[in-house]
Amino acid sequence: MLTCQIPPQYFEATHGTAPKYAGQNKVNPGSIILSAEMMLRHMGWTEAADNVLSAMSNVIQNKTVTYDLERLMDGATLLSCSEFGDALIDSL
Length: 92
Hints:
Layout: E1 2-5, E2 10-13, H1 30-42, H2 46-61, E3 64-65, H3 67-70, E4 77-78, H4 81-91
Parallel strand pairs: 3-4
Antiparallel strand pairs: 1-2
Helix pairs in contact: 1-2, 2-4
């Protein structure tokens, strides 16, 4: 779940911990990236926020996703957390 608590302006990805995945480079970074998108939009950087959202959409539509989504999508390509981040950067 994403949250934006205003005021004060505070953006975070809210979720529990997953210690069993620590150090495995497999967890989906989407919630923290989308929290950053909300922060950019709040700051008035709408073009940057739109670009982040568009990149996230493109990567998922291309079915290049982390394990949590890959197992739910036919024909998807499994990416690690860092590879997913690289795919987002490439899509910007």
